[in-house]
Amino acid sequence: GYITSSFASGYQLHRELQCGGQIFTARITPIPNKRYVNIYAVDITERKQAELALLACEERYRQTLDSMMEGCQILDFNWRYIYINAAAAQQGRSTREELLGRTILEMYPGIEYSQTFSILRDTMEKRITRQVENEFTYPDGSTGWFELTVQPAPEGIVVLSFDITERKRAERALRESEQHYHLLFEDSPISLWEEDFSEVKR
Predict the structure, then answer these.
(1) pLDDT tens column, 116-158
(2) CA–CA dist 111, 132 (Å, integer)
(3) CA 126 from chain center: how many Å?
(4) Radius of gyration of the CA atoms of the chain, in A
(5) What one-character-per-residue DSSP string does 114-137 give?
(6) Burial of 3 (0-12, 13-18, 19+ CB in 10 A)
(7) What is the pLDDT of the chain when averaged over all its residues?
(8) Which of 5, 66, 91, 184 is least enclosed by beta carbons within 10 angstroms?
(9) 52: which residues sit within 8 A by CB, 6+ positions away?
(10) Is 60 helix (H, G, I), strand (E, B) or coil?
């Protein structure tokens, strides 16, 4: 085993060993001229249990982010995607596989001149949280509206995004309808008026 290997090689070994449900980190030091080895072991069971609990917590957290309807992405200080959930990838008209490991500048050429990037850079450099409604222009020239929350993170920045394109289109259609309605009143040769009968008693 490890003791034989250490003694045969003459080199000190560092290993993690499990014994009776406990975990130890061991340093095995051969003493060739005495024909024996010294073993120094430290019980790291609690630390290992804490590490496993943290990994489980991180996995649950990642699963939660992955299943969110809201887009979530993490960009490092070099603007590289280090995490993105399915919703954010769909909003960007791409896939997680295409985005992870690449920079936002590579994926969306010219974005550095956009209002979107200005918001991201503001948070990246000043370490402040920004919340805005922002229109994003895709490489093919089409646009989409998103409600963005951009927060500083140890890795860089976290971007939470909610697609509000349909809402913005509905608001625009309503404005255009109201404008058309008022034009009908202004341009009509017939006298038109509005009356409020809400206060009339039946």
Answers:
(1) 999 999 999 999 999 999 998 888 889 999 999 999 999 999 9
(2) 17
(3) 19
(4) 31
(5) SHHHHHHHHHHHH---EEEEEEEE
(6) middle
(7) 81
(8) 184
(9) none
(10) helix
